[in-house]
From TrEMBL:
Database matches in InterPro entries: DAP_epimerase_AS, DAP_epimerase_DapF
Native organism: Actinocatenispora rupis
Cited Pfam families: DAP_epimerase
Residues reported in the UniProt entry to bind substrate: 11, 72, 82-83, 151, 184, 208-209, 218-219
Site positions (Could be important to modulate the pK values of the two catalytic cysteine residues): 153, 208
EC number: 5.1.1.7
Gene designation per UniProt: dapF
Active-site annotation: 81 (proton donor), 81, 217 (proton acceptor)
Record note on quaternary structure: Homodimer.
Descriptive protein name: Diaminopimelate epimerase
Length: 272
């Protein structure tokens, strides 16, 4: 089995080329591949498969050749991954599977189009703010805003000192009536330091369902940007999102949202 390893702002992925959908992936095999001690190690797995060869993507075959079959590190399947989609696009163009610089691929959240350059910018579709709810860590409660960014999120504003001190070694507890399938939980602080080209600057930590705390979450940055701009009374703008693994930029308009950031392929090999 051939594989590659890539990351976007240190949110890392095992990449499996499987054009004809022939690999017998299971939750257990994906979890083993993503295990950081006994496997390759990653926050998730990206299977590169043609739309026409995967039952979740055949309806997109007329509009896109490739489907991003994304699995979380625990072997569960997810709808979308903002860092993963940039790594997926980098892999396609680097390996001659797509011409670029503009490439459309299919995901479980629909078609997404990216522009591949030194960084990669992806049209993520407009996020939907669903209302207020909250998360609990230990005995502390954190109110936030539920967001659908192609996958479920909860964005919780916190003070800067509290952000650094949060214990994210365990999953924050959520209201199952709001998030029956769980959610990624973003804790965010608005920063005073300006960033050139950005209207807002924030710092974010994230607990991803199926993976634990990760160094970055692209769809989480999308959710955070939408909430941050709304709290500032704006329906459009650009937000610089600092994560432990680097910086992402999310640009919101009334009709769309573009996520931009780096994506790097760091290794290729053969899995035994």
């Amino acid at each position: 089995m051939e594989f590659a390893k890539g990351h976007g702002t240190r949110n890392d992925f095992v990449i499996l080329p499987d054009p004809d959908g022939a690999l017998p992936l299971t939750a257990g095999s994906v979890a083993a591949l993503c295990d950081r001690r006994g496997g390759i190690g990653a926050d998730g797995l990206l299977r590169v498969v043609r739309c026409a060869k995967h039952p979740d993507a055949t309806r997109y075959a007329a509009d896109a050749e490739w489907f991003m079959d994304y699995w979380n590190a625990d072997g569960s399947i997810a709808e979308m991954c903002g860092n993963g989609i940039r790594v997926f696009l980098r892999y396609l163009v680097t390996n001659g599977l797509a011409d670029g610089p503009t490439v459309t691929i299919a995901t479980r959240s629909g078609l997404r189009t990216g522009t591949v350059g030194e960084t990669i910018a992806v049209q993520m579709g407009p996020p939907t703010l669903l209302g207020t709810t909250g998360a609990t860590i230990g005995e502390a409660g954190y109110p936030g805003v539920a967001v659908d960014a192609g996958n479920p999120h909860l964005v919780c504003p916190v003070p800067a000192a509290e952000l650094a001190a949060l214990d994210l070694t365990r999953a924050p507890r959520l209201d199952p009536a709001v998030f029956p399938a769980g959610a990624n939980v973003e804790f965010v602080t608005v920063l005073d330091e300006p960033v050139a080209g950005a209207d807002r600057h924030v710092r974010m930590r994230v607990y991803e369902r199926g993976a634990g705390e990760t160094e970055s979450c692209g769809s989480g940055a999308v959710a955070v940007a939408a909430v941050t701009l709304r709290e500032a009374g704006r329906d459009a703008g650009t937000v610089a999102v600092d994560v432990p693994g680097g910086r992402l930029t999310a640009t919101v308009t009334p009709d769309s949202l573009t996520l931009a950031g780096p994506a790097v392929i760091v290794a290729t090999g053969t899995l035994r």
